[in-house]
């Protein structure tokens, strides 16, 4: 038994590490899937409707299905990342591209949620709802970007691939359950959706600080920043005093809008490809009933 203790310790460290580094991932994925209905079937394309009926007992309705499909994609993506670790370590431009994408995504959604100030009740406008397959595709892209740091950190703890895969695999499963809990929490505390995209912005900025200026933020500090972001967002939602400073948020949002115009121009080709791929799943013609 004693010979297994080092492996058990490494696996426990990997699970803990996955939890710390994935709190942002869980929050963002939970916020992404929250707008999906929890009582409607997955809109399978016509040619795959029979397969959809077979998979329905395993996937469930749209919100849970998005998490479960994302879980499968996360395992495939992390496995691919493990074999590409050396490439990722020696090519920092990969992280920079991911950082720019995260910042753009955060700016785009934060601008949507606060543009036009507020509605007639003074509430922050909700984010626009994506279709099921567009949401799944966004979840997979987010998970791949977030997994870069997780995989590099995991490999630094052990050179045994199966041990790393076991620890990371258990960690992914745990954080997917956390994402499900967060999606239900968003229904009760809508401010958490804004908090999730602030977390995305945090990660993008942290990646740029690390890759451009070589300022490395410790994992526990990153975890603390994430928890503080969520706590401050909840405090703002329930504090009339803090809400008196809403004009600061409006001013920041206007600045985000200006920057986002330029970023949108840079990302226009990528968004066109993304929308085309998502459209293939959403707009495929349904089969006509037999006469």
Question: In words, what does this structure look like?
Answer:
There is one protein chain. By secondary structure, the chain is mainly α. It has one domain (2-282). Helices cover 77% and strands 0% of the residues. Helix 2 packs antiparallel against helix 7 (132-155) and helix 4 (62-83) packs parallel to helix 7 (132-155).
At a glance:
The chain is mainly alpha-helical. It has twelve helices and no strands. The protein has one domain (2-282).
Feature tags:
globular; mainly alpha; single chain; disordered C terminus; 291 residues
Percent of residues in beta strands? Answer: under 5%
| Helix content range | over 70%
Q: What gross morphology would you assign?
A: globular
| Global structural class | mainly alpha
Average pLDDT over all residues: 77
Order of helices and strands: HHHHHHHHHHHH
Largest sheet: none
User: What's the total helix number?
Assistant: 12
Give the termini distance in whole angstroms.
68 Å
Uncertain runs = 116-127, 284-291
Count of discrete structural domains: 1
How many DSSP E strands?
0
Taking Cα atoms only, what radius of gyration do you get, to the nearest Å? 20 Å
